[in-house]
Amino acid sequence: MDNLHHIVVVGGGAGGLELVTSLGNKLGKKRKARITLVDAGLTHVWKPLLHEVASGSLDASANEINYRAHARKHHYEFQLGRMRGLDRKAKKLVIASFHDEEGVEVVPERHVSYDTLVIAVGSTANDFGTPGAQDNCLFLDSLRQARRFHNLMLNAFLRKNHEALEGQDHILNISIIGAGATGVELAAELRLASRELPVYGMNHLQSSDVSISVIEAADRILPALPGRLSAAATRELEHQHVKVLTGQPVSEVRESSIIMKDGTELPSEMTIWAAGIKAPAFLAELDGLEVNKSNQLVVEQTLQTTQDADIYAFGDCAACPQPDSDRPVPPRAQAAHQQAAALFKTLCNRLGGGEAVPFVYNDHGSLINFSRYTTVGNLMGNLSGRSMYIEGKVARLFYVSLYRMHQVALHGFVRTGIIWLMDKISRAMQPRLKLH
Q: With contact defined as beta carbons under 8 Å apart, do 233 and 227 qualify?
């Protein structure tokens, strides 16, 4: 194995895990290359589902993929740890030491050699330096953060239920800063939770006692999506009694309130930051690799970094150009999925002395899911060549299919079918909301 071409992929998110799965099945299985995945966590959960984990409508344990088990089935290796540095001349990446929950070092800092390096470390929330955001906001960048949010939400509901029983003021104010897809979908999930939890014993707290606000600096929610989709989403949120505040930049986040740019103070006991993303800061210190102002690695259309042909980057952490456009490929799950497929072909060609495959992004549209209430979206590339607006059950079917496509890429059609059946059985037997 030491003599084989070593492809190291850093980041086991949607794109990174799909890529190592394909490479392992194609090259690792036949001993044509050695494939290694590096990630700071032990398990994978599809990031677009984290808001459902946070609200409790999805049980993460039933949807997690253990990297070690998956690696064994798909012929790649797994290294636990967080990348923190790079030596391009020696072709080695530095993995930080790993500590347990008590701070005891389990594995020391180490170096991993590579022949081809792929960086797919995703993105984190961008608070734009807003005072108080880091100290007083909750974030949904990782499974750990989503689980922490869920526990805090349950405790907040329990506290307010007791205050209602005692005849005290018991309004719970929840604010979501940022009305992109995550913020909008999270608001709908939280409204569902406020209606479901009284069914499971918190019957002194009514859904109307939970005030949910979505705050957006732009003049409309979902500013990156078509206006018709934004208008439909606004109507649905208002129908679910979610306050929509647009054209409202946040200037400061305090422990129990939010200060708007115009000086207005809004009460908020739970504040979630869902506005903007940026690539991890360590990318700006990777031995001279070019980055933009959002810390994204600048890559060619082949996904090769501009400073090193042996290093590739894709997904949210990469700024990839689009033909006939001055904007890079948008940081979306469908883009990472398409890039993983293109990069798989490029790396297979690379081993055989072939050409790299230029990446061309195909926008298939956008779908916004309002929990169990409805789904709205637009599909691109239909027979008319234009965007087609859809909603209701048809849109929900397309939305669910996105996750199933991700599962097919990781498990194949047969196993995905079995997983789908198990999900149906689990939903029939378990509470509609995760209660712990």
A: no
